[in-house]
């Protein structure tokens, strides 16, 4: 009698496909419901797999969440650090840097919005606060270099909040890719003009 069997490579392929489907369904569920309200049962149902199959790939909701957001955090952090260093060395790169960052954010729009707005209850729920702290540190260094003294940290925090929440609104907006990049360019030019004005006219009061 001929035995039914699958090659190891076929089994690995099926396992990989199931894991990818769970990640894709997880992105949709976390984006719609947020981490706290996300249902593993609904994620499994969307993939047509059992909860047993889910636990073959992930230990629980947190591990699935981490599998979704951690690769994006790594990409985002790496690019952010590279662009920040480049801008500190050459201010003329600011607009290109903004475009590069928005391009990355658009490619991972849902994962980033999950991190920024829907991660409460997860191991990444402090990500937004940490992002603000990192951007504030960069802004403080940037302004200190430009004006020759440490700026008012409360004012810098306002600039940080404007930057982050402006980006969130761009990512949440009902715009196509071209519109989003165009609006991002306009905001970047606006920010650049504001920065120039501040260091030329308000240096002593900052």
From TrEMBL:
Keyword DNA repair belongs to the record: no
InterPro entries: DNA-bd_HTH_TetR-type_CS, Homeodomain-like_sf, HTH-type_Tx_Regulator, HTH_TetR
SUPFAM superfamilies the record matches: Homeodomain-like
Keyword Methyltransferase: no
Domain HTH tetR-type intervals: 16-76
One Pfam family this sequence matches: TetR_N
Recorded superkingdom: Bacteria
Ranges annotated as DNA-binding: 39-58
Keywords: DNA-binding
The name this protein goes by in its record: HTH tetR-type domain-containing protein
Organism: Lacrimispora amygdalina
């Amino acid at each position: 009698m001929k035995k039914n069997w699958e090659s190891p490579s076929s089994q690995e392929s099926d396992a990989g496909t199931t894991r990818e489907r769970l990640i894709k369904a997880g992105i949709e569920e976390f984006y719609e419901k947020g981490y706290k309200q996300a249902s593993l049962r609904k994620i499994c149902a969307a993939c047509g797999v059992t909860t047993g199959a889910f636990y073959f790939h992930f230990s629980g909701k947190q591990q699935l969440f981490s599998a979704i957001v951690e690769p994006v955090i790594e990409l985002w952090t790496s690019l952010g650090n590279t662009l920040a260093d480049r801008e500190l060395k050459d201010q003329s790169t600011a607009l290109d840097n903004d475009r590069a960052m928005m391009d990355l954010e658009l490619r991972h729009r849902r994962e980033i919005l999950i991190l920024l707005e829907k991660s409460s209850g997860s191991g990444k729920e402090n990500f937004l606060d940490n992002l603000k702290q990192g951007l504030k540190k960069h802004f403080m260094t940037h302004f200190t270099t430009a004006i020759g003294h440490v700026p008012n940290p409360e004012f810098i925090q306002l600039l940080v909040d404007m930057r982050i929440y402006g980006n969130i609104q761009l990512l949440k907006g009902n715009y196509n890719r071209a519109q989003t990049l165009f609006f991002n360019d306009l905001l970047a030019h606006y920010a650049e003009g504001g920065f120039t004005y501040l260091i030329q006219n308000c240096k002593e009061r900052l």
